[in-house]
Specification:
This protein is an alpha/beta fold and 499 residues long. The chain contains 15 helices and 23 strands. The N and C termini lie far apart (46 Å).
Length: 499
């Protein structure tokens, strides 16, 4: 017996945790299931036929969150025979068969290297009435070969690599995602062109360490070349990328950003700590002087660049002097935004067993001081834009108060969040359209534009949003590149883009 009515297609729901790479992987999971005949469950459907958890293993409480959610589904499944639950992603790669032992009502467990197996595993589990656990140790088929159900009409993720060759002591991603695998440039550009042809205006190039792209085929300038090549794609208005590693940041990338018109002047570059001693303990192969030097070069080439970062507070052994140095670097860097984290143990990482684990109250107090420092700076930086005209790509779901305030929201070219009044254009502006508007107010995390828009441009992405359509891209090519002469192929932002 199944939960789907006789003759009707089975419904599915994907629940995603973690970084941009996981969000993009979930688009692939949706594409695979729809190719296999499943249909997406309505938002209000509390009992889809298949629920897929795409998990993250980066935070300490990731497993508690998963098992809590699985526990909530247990009675739902008991009342609906035929319902299936699948767990994938980084936590599945890490915990493997333990998931079924802890939650025997789970039907399928699949890892980061075999997303494409999901439909077959669901079929096999249903046929055999037994759980299927399949975890591969290495990537056999690059994820971009899989069909993808894109979530946005106007913005798309494109993986240029998966995996990571770094050994940061706080990060479990390399052991879960594997060594870096690079797609061939032609394959990446084919996918970007396909998105642009479908009306997508903005593409974000993804990789755990996006600017080390090319290491597998021996071209350290490959990433800058890729950015420039994106500038030749008709209809593509914005190109972003995440996340670069400071150790691999080269001057040619800065030049490519400055000289390629559709590459946005925004840079997300994780700092993690301003203390050289802590960076050394983290096994981050750069120091604060190198980091600030990159920012100086970026701003010299692009004075309007918005730079964002990731910072970890309370790493084992961090002293008050170390933390003070982080605050110094934050003040000098003048970030437009920062993702801040309290250090938490990742089981399986070297840092989890290091001496000098800090008391929670110490970490919390430093974290609050960091937040106050960051917000003081981001607010001051945002205030500089009051009175300026900004170009906004209208988005969905960016402004939680939009319905109450009558505003719409989107992202400026530099990545800042803008809430804007629609004026006489109310009801005519669609997600995916382009609006030019004047900033009237600045807050630490967003800008407001409360006057009527200066200009509004309707786009094909807006047409698609109005029609309720989302782009679907077929699998792109059939394999992995090899070192040396190009062979065959191959994207926030995989397990953790915060490298």
């Amino acid at each position: 017996m199944t939960t789907a009515a006789a003759g009707s297609p089975r419904t599915y729901q994907v629940r995603t945790y973690g970084c941009q790479m996981n969000v993009h992987d979930s688009e692939r999971i949706s594409g695979l299931l729809e190719d296999a005949g499943y249909v997406r469950a309505a938002e209000a459907d509390e009992q889809p036929d298949v629920v897929v958890f795409n998990t993250c293993a980066v935070r300490e409480n990731a497993d508690n969150r998963l098992y809590g959610n699985l526990g909530h589904l247990r009675p739902v499944k008991a009342k609906h025979p035929g319902m299936q639950i699948a767990v994938g992603g980084c936590l599945a790669q890490k915990d493997r068969g333990d998931i079924v032992r802890k939650a025997p009502w789970v039907d399928v467990v699949f890892g980061t290297h075999n997303i494409g197996s999901l439909p077959a595993l669901l079929d096999r589990a249903r046929h055999n009435a037994a759980a299927e656990v399949e975890i591969l140790e290495s990537l056999e088929v690059f994820p971009s070969t899989l069909p993808t159900r894109r979530e946005s009409t106007y913005a798309g993720w494109v993986s240029i690599s998966v995996g990571c060759n770094n050994t940061c002591t706080f990060c479990i991603v390399p052991s879960l995602r594997g060594k870096e695998k690079d797609r061939r440039p032609g394959d990446i550009l084919s996918e970007v062109r396909a998105l642009a042809d479908s009306g997508v205006l903005e593409v974000t190039l993804l990789g755990q360490n996006v600017n080390s792209y090319g290491v597998e085929f021996g071209d350290r300038y490959a990433f800058g070349k890729l950015l420039r090549a994106c500038g030749d794609i008709d209809g593509l208005e914005r190109v972003r990328f995440t996340s670069p590693h400071p150790k691999d940041f080269t001057d040619d990338v800065i030049a490519a950003m400055a000289e390629t018109p559709n590459v946005c002047h925004s840079l997300h570059m994780p700092l993690q700590s301003g203390s050289d001693d802590v960076l050394r303990a983290m096994r981050r192969s750069y120091r604060s002087e190198r980091y600030l030097g990159i920012i100086e070069k970026v701003r010299a080439a692009m004075p309007d660049a918005a730079i964002t970062t990731d910072i970890i507070v309370g790493f084992p052994g961090e002293t008050e002097a170390d933390f003070a140095r982080t605050l110094d670097v934050v003040r000098e860097a003048r970030f437009s935004s920062a993702f801040t984290f309290q250090y938490s143990k990742r089981p399986g990482t070297p840092a989890a067993t290091m001496d000098g684990q800090l008391p929670k109250q110490v970490v919390q107090e430093r974290y609050e001081r960091l937040i106050a420092c960051v917000e003081e700076i981001t607010w001051a930086e945002n205030k500089k834009l009051v009175g300026e005209t900004v170009e906004v790509l209208v988005a969905v779901g960016e402004g939680r108060k939009d319905e109450r305030t009558g505003r719409m929201s989107g992202r400026a070219r530099d990545g800042r969040l803008v809430h804007f009044a629609t004026g006489d254009l109310a009801g005519r502006i669609r997600p995916g359209d382009i609006v030019h508007t004047v900033v009237t107010y600045a807050a630490p995390h967003h800008l407001n534009a409360d006057g009527a828009p200066v200009a509004h441009r309707r786009t094909r992405a807006g047409d698609a949003a109005e029609a309720g359509q989302v782009p679907r891209t077929p699998g792109v090519l059939l394999g992995l590149p090899t070192i040396g002469a190009p062979a065959v192929p191959p994207a926030p932002v995989g397990g953790c883009a915060a490298h």
